[in-house]
Amino acid sequence: MNALDAPTLLIANAIFNGFASFCWVLLAGLFRIAPRASWLMAGAHLCCMAAALRCEDCAPLPIEGFADLAALATVALLALALRRMLRLRQHWLDIALIGGAGALAVLWPLPGRSAPLIATSACMSLLALRATRDVVSGAGPGLARPVTVLIALPHLLLGLATGARAAVLLFAPQWTGLFQVDGAASGLLAGLWLALSGAIAISLMALLLWRLIARIQHLSHHDSMTGSLNRRAFDAELRKLQALRRRGHEHAIVLIDIDHFKRINDRLGHAAGDAALIHAVKVLRGCLRDLDLLGRLGGEEFCALLPHTPLAPAAQVAERMRAALEQRPLAWRGSETIALTASFGVAPAQGDDPLGTAGLALADRLVYRAKAEGRNRVCVADAAPVPAAAAPSFSASSSSARPAV
Ligand SMILES: Nc1nc2c(ncn2[C@@H]2O[C@H](COP(=O)(O)OP(=O)(O)OP(=O)(O)O)[C@@H](O)[C@H]2O)c(=O)[nH]1
């Protein structure tokens, strides 16, 4: 048996796809990683394995055109899995219609020996090209360009190869030796099929890996309940802004503490408290620019970092947040309304404060003052920077706080 003859390549393809299917089953069933997409991928590789076992030496064919049907199912399942992995909202209807049309051509054969083959090849080409378009248009800015190319390229090649196969069968049937020899696959087709299934398997694994890494990174930087930055990520961002300050970039710190939050927990339960925190973050986030950062410092205390923002505009942003929170109570379980207000402390970035702790301490004192003055208000520091050493006590601070705006 020649190592590069069609039956050998088809057996290699079947073994590879069987193994790939097993790996996706493990991911879906055991590790619950992207389960729906993984099940679809397991199915796609299984169909690919069935298509590869078409060679008469390997297994008897259950129905005429079984291999083409299995190959078509492979590409349709791949396209569906890809949409799931890319989290595209597009429906599966177009894939079902194209796949169904191809399957019909096999099960209810068109006249002519090669007509079903042409139809299934054309449908596979269409599905693979749509998958390529899905990758290019649906990847979005979140997907790194090399990853996009890595995923799109094998699908594009599959679309072109199956399209070329349909065209050759249609316009130059005398060339069918390129794809078929005496009704069995040629070495070229078998080799191409093996290379493409390998490339597609690698590209989808790469996509899954990339998504996992992105998810882990997100989880390590964000508070899992509210989606705002967690304390560690917030501190890192604050340090970065403090470093930029030395190069002349101003930023402001707005510390936010929800008022009487304990009462919500006590009156309506912890779940209501959690919902109130999620709602508050949504409202606060809506008042900020894309480049502003919102972090959860702990419990019901949040902090907004406003890059390139002097104190006066920062005070206006804080007032906007305060008013938005007051005006948008949370509807809770139909009958209840949870009114939310917060106290705000607005401080400029401090000099000689690489960690940003002096700025935070000043904002914290301003929040205490807002609480002491009756809550649901904004207290703003004096524009004059406060020396870090002067920070600890509110009364000793050189920054006078005042209700703002
Ligand atoms: N539901 C819920 N409650 C939390 C969470 N984190 C902290 N809390 C509660 O938040 C409450 C904070 O209470 P306090 O520090 O007394 O503050 P407060 O009731 O908002 O009062 P003031 O800040 O003085 O207006 C505590 O009861 C905490 O248990 C959380 O993630 N979910």
Automatic annotation (TrEMBL):
<dbReference type="InterPro" id="IPR043128">
    <property type="entry name" value="Rev_trsase/Diguanyl_cyclase"/>
</dbReference>
<dbReference type="GO" id="GO:0052621">
    <property type="term" value="F:diguanylate cyclase activity"/>
</dbReference>
<feature type="transmembrane region" description="Helical">
    <location>
        <begin position="188"/>
        <end position="210"/>
    </location>
</feature>
<keyword id="KW-0808">Transferase</keyword>
<dbReference type="Pfam" id="PF00990">
    <property type="entry name" value="GGDEF"/>
</dbReference>
<keyword id="KW-0812">Transmembrane</keyword>
<feature type="domain" description="GGDEF">
    <location>
        <begin position="249"/>
        <end position="383"/>
    </location>
</feature>
<feature type="transmembrane region" description="Helical">
    <location>
        <begin position="6"/>
        <end position="30"/>
    </location>
</feature>
<keyword id="KW-0472">Membrane</keyword>
<keyword id="KW-1133">Transmembrane helix</keyword>
<dbReference type="InterPro" id="IPR029787">
    <property type="entry name" value="Nucleotide_cyclase"/>
</dbReference>
<feature type="transmembrane region" description="Helical">
    <location>
        <begin position="91"/>
        <end position="108"/>
    </location>
</feature>
<dbReference type="InterPro" id="IPR000160">
    <property type="entry name" value="GGDEF_dom"/>
</dbReference>
<keyword id="KW-0548">Nucleotidyltransferase</keyword>
<feature type="transmembrane region" description="Helical">
    <location>
        <begin position="143"/>
        <end position="168"/>
    </location>
</feature>
<protein>
    <recommendedName>
        <fullName>diguanylate cyclase</fullName>
        <ecNumber>2.7.7.65</ecNumber>
    </recommendedName>
</protein>
<dbReference type="InterPro" id="IPR050469">
    <property type="entry name" value="Diguanylate_Cyclase"/>
</dbReference>
<feature type="transmembrane region" description="Helical">
    <location>
        <begin position="65"/>
        <end position="82"/>
    </location>
</feature>
